[in-house]
């Protein structure tokens, strides 16, 4: 059982930055793949980024490459999403998720993730 709590969302102007945090508690963390997803009103949940258990490999949606950076601090049981050069199109609820099952590479599919946080709202004004 894993509990995830996101924080750091808010309102920011286009071109600005936010840093999202996801604090995890439960049986495991350091051995889990962690992901970030977003969901805009009326849209399906979409992959944003993921990071391997040790932090050595990262994965990004094409729409955020070069702007967002995922990282993790296993000592703090926390995963981060640094969001730079934000665009109005980034407006969504952002969720962190954990994949507790071992994989060679992270999945971009929400169904592959076992636990989810409550989400944090990111709003980017034009």
Question: If you had to describe this structure to a student in words, what would you say it looks like?
Answer:
This protein is mostly beta strands and 126 residues long. 0% of the residues lie in helices and 50% in strands. The protein has strands at residues 2-7, 10-13, 18-26, 33-39, 46-51, 58-60, 68-73, 78-83, 92-99, 115-116, 120-125. The strands form 2 sheets. Strands 2, 4, 5, 6, 9, 10 and 11 form a 7-stranded mixed β-sheet that branches. A hairpin with a 6-residue loop joins strand 5 and strand 6. It is globular and about 40 Å long.
- The number of distinct β-strands equals 11
- Provide the low-confidence segments as ranges: none
Q: In terms of structural class, how would the helical and strand content be classed?
A: mainly beta
Give the number of helices.
0
Helix content: under 10%
Please write the string of helix (H) and strand (E) elements: EEEEEEEEEEE
Largest sheet: 7 strands, mixed
Summed over residues and divided by their number, the pLDDT gives a mean of: 94
Radius of gyration: 13 Å
**Could you tell me the strand content as a percent range?**
over 45%
Q: How would you sum up the global shape?
A: globular
| C-alpha termini separation | 40 Å
């Amino acid at each position: 059982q894993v509990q995830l709590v996101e924080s750091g969302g808010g309102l920011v102007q286009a071109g600005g930055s936010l840093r999202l945090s996801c604090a995890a508690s439960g049986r495991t963390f350091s051995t889990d793949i962690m992901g970030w997803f977003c969901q805009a009103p009326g849209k399906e949940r979409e992959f944003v980024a993921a990071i391997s258990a040790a932090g050595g490999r990262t994965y990004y949606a094409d729409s955020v490459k070069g702007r967002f950076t995922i990282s993790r601090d296993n000592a703090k049981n926390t995963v981060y999403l640094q969001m730079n050069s934000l665009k109005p199109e980034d407006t969504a609820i952002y969720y962190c998720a954990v994949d507790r099952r071992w994989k060679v590479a992270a999945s971009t599919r929400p169904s592959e993730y076992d636990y989810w946080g409550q989400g944090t709202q990111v709003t980017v004004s034009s």
